[in-house]
Amino acid sequence: MKVFLVFAHPEPQSLSSALCQVAVQELEAQGHEVRVSDLYAMNWKCNIDRDDFPLLSKELPLRVASASKTGYSSHGLTEDVLAEQEKLLWADTVILQFPLWWFTMPAILKGWVDRVFSCGFAYGVGEHNDKRWGDRYGEGILSGKRAMLIVTVGGWADHYSSRGVNGPIEDLLFPIQHGILFYPGLEVLPPFVLYQVDKMGNSMFDTMAEQLRERVRNIQTAKPIPYRRQNYGDYYIPSMVLREDIDTGAATGFTLHREVHNDSEQIHKYKEQ
């Protein structure tokens, strides 16, 4: 298996960096090929601007989506962006590893997404009509690949529980897992989340490192989060609203967009499409 790990932490001596090394070493020990983009070490440019689109005339205003689409289709994006897109296409599995800062990913990783997930590559793909609304949410250029988050959190697990003051961790990660990874077609595995990392001693690190090793050992066989695919009958098109006749059980909020069918029903449903 080919694994692409995108790492975002500024300190090489950090717990996050140590966990990154644990993940890479275990993956390689299992015979997988691994590439790592250490964004801070690469001095990754995180702001998207005119410099990202060399083909754009200086006389034209910058409209990011259209400039991105033209740049991608004309092979006119910058070399650093093209290199990251090549890694995504090369990989069977993509891992994003980052500390949870202000309830989301660090700015440098968001900037990586902004620049690398170009129009025509990660979005703006496929036909839009009364049958389907583009190749997205379960379809797209990155479909057939897997993805997983490794996230370190300073707060307590209880703070991020269903009744915790910070909100459920599943909700906080939904925009990343569903909106960034599932959108261009990646199957998203449950995240590996560590809490109270600022208070973690050596003995606790050893325990968590072994748990991470176990997760990456099973990365090929773990079941993905059963997000609903956009063009498979669950949503009205083109409004993209969940159909009223869909059984959602007791789900509310973001969980509405997860399948509630059992495995055999879900497999049968997808084969019928």
Which labels suit this protein?
alpha/beta; Rossmann fold; 2 domains; 11% strand; 273 residues; single chain; 6-stranded parallel beta sheet; disordered C terminus
Summarize the structure.
By secondary structure, the chain is α/β, with parallel strands linked by helices.
Q: How is this structure best described in words?
A:
The protein is α/β, with parallel strands linked by helices. Strand 4, helix 5 and strand 5 form a beta-alpha-beta unit. Helix 1 packs parallel to helix 6. The C terminus is likely disordered.
Q: Radius of gyration, Cα only, in angstroms?
A: 19 Å
Uncertain ranges: 263-273
Please estimate the helix content.
25-40%
N- to C-terminal distance:
28 Å
Percentage beta strand: 5-15%
* Structural classification: alpha/beta
In the CATH hierarchy, what is the superfamily of the largest domain? Flavodoxin domain
Which geometry do the CA atoms define? globular
CATH topology of the largest domain: Rossmann fold
- Taken in chain order, the helices and strands follow as EHEHHEHEHEEHHH
Counting DSSP E segments of at least 2 residues, the number of strands comes to 6
Largest sheet data: 6 strands, parallel
Number of helices: 8
GO molecular function: NAD(P)H dehydrogenase (quinone) activity
Keywords: Oxidoreductase
Protein name: Ribosyldihydronicotinamide dehydrogenase
Pfam families: Flavodoxin_2
